[in-house]
Write a structure and sequence with these properties.
FrsA_esterase; AB_hydrolase_fold; about 220 residues; 8 strands
């Protein structure tokens, strides 16, 4: 099994987005990551979860939701990172790329979203119901997906830290609005804050995400 990432470029409606693809030889599913606000494909937490999924036989794709030029603007204005329709459309385009590229089109697709990336994941799941088979949110803001929540059909796992009380409430509200989903599981990880920085808590995210994706991909 090779876990060395290969660099790829995704064409997202005419915008080139850089990504890192890990493709284990026997993979039957792929997890596409959507990072949170102010982050990138180099997010240490997402890369740790990605590596764990790859070690368990799942392909993974981490990519930048913004171009280098947009990142420069965002560092100054901090507006693009919270443009949920924009990052949702970028992730939707990435799902389309995965579904048609020669390297990945044979793989079942799951989405992993952190923070605002969870909203992007749910928007993509709503827009691509035939292709997205499962969604996992880590410390996410699924509520920001708005009207798309009612269109999500893919099984969804919402992981929230037990100390992240405002986000727990927002996840519960979002779950109640996901009326079309076949399965929506909310797991509260005791003793974890928003970023799951406490010892052993990100490892619990790895375990839960791996369980869920292996079941559905």
């Amino acid at each position: 099994m090779t876990l060395t990432p290969r660099s790829i470029v995704i064409d997202a409606d005419g915008v080139a987005l850089e990504g890192d693809l890990i493709l284990p030889q026997e993979a039957t599913g792929i997890v596409v990551f959507a990072h949170g606000s102010g982050s990138s494909r180099f997010s240490s937490r997402n890369r740790q979860v990605s590596r764990h999924l790859a070690e368990n036989g799942l392909a993974t794709l981490l990519f930048d939701l913004l171009t280098p030029e947009e990142n420069v603007i965002d560092e100054r204005t901090r507006q693009l990172r919270f443009d949920i329709p924009l990052i949702g459309s970028r992730l939707t385009a990435a799902v389309g790329w995965v579904a048609t590229d020669d390297l990945t089109r044979h793989l079942s697709i799951g989405l992993f979203g952190a923070s605002t990336g969870a909203a992007a994941a749910l928007i993509a799941a709503a827009e691509r119901p035939e292709q997205v088979r499962a969604v996992v949110s880590r410390g996410g803001r699924p509520d920001l997906a708005g009207r798309h929540l009612a269109k999500v059909k893919a099984p969804t796992l919402l992981l929230v830290g037990g100390w992240d009380e405002p986000v727990i409430d927002l996840n519960q509200q979002a779950r109640d609005r996901m009326t079309a989903v076949s399965e929506c599981e909310l797991v509260i990880v005791p003793g974890a804050s928003h970023l799951f920085e406490e010892p052993g808590k990100l490892e619990e995210v790895e375990r839960q995400a791996t369980r869920f994706f292996l079941n559905h991909l």
